[in-house]
Write a structure and sequence with these properties.
Strand content: 25-35%
Number of strands: 8
Order of helices and strands: EHEEEEHEEEH
Structural class: alpha/beta
């Protein structure tokens, strides 16, 4: 019998400087700190449109911790999904403004931009085509050049991830 998971709920990263990482993810994704655990030097962050308790946990382990070398065993990157292709375009601009943009690509059914946090943790921000448009990419994940302007012209205004927007408590 397999585990009946439906999606990844949250990710947790070790970071060298907790407050620097909290500031970065707040500026990049608009996260809010929903909880802190001072005994573990940890903060738990929620994305603005998330229905999760937290989407990202950060555990500060100190500036003296050696960074993981790229290409070694361990986590390669996390992928954050956005709802519209325009959101992906904005993600690219935000990452560039933070000097965190590292690249972009088309994977057929998904379009992606890539970034890196202050500790070198890589991440992807991706937009997924509507399911009925996957076609030949249903069982393929190529790595091709991304024409983001062309994708915005083609897919502009299409919502594919859904949004959880809660009304404020009265």
């Amino acid at each position: 019998m397999t585990i009946a998971a439906v999606r990844l709920n949250h990710a947790v990263l070790f970071v060298s400087d907790l407050e620097r990482a909290v500031e970065f993810y707040s500026r990049a994704f608009g996260t809010e700190v929903v909880a802190r655990e001072p005994r573990a030097n940890a903060a738990f962050l929620r994305m603005p449109r998330s229905g999760n308790h937290h989407d990202l946990g950060l555990f500060g382990i100190g500036a003296g911790a050696p960074p993981r070398r790229p290409g070694t065993v361990g986590l390669y990157h996390l992928a954050w999904q956005v709802d519209t292709i325009e959101d992906l375009e904005q993600a690219r601009l935000t990452l560039a403004a933070l000097d965190a943009f590292t690249g972009e690509s088309s994977h057929g059914a998904t379009k992606s931009v890539y970034g890196v946090d202050p500790d070198g943790n890589e991440f992807e921000v991706m937009w997924m085509l509507p399911r009925d448009a996957w076609g030949e990419y249903e069982h393929a994940a190529p790595v091709e050049a991304l024409d983001l302007a062309g994708e915005v012209r083609r897919w502009g205004g299409r919502h594919t991830a859904g949004r959880i927007v809660e009304e404020p408590a009265s």
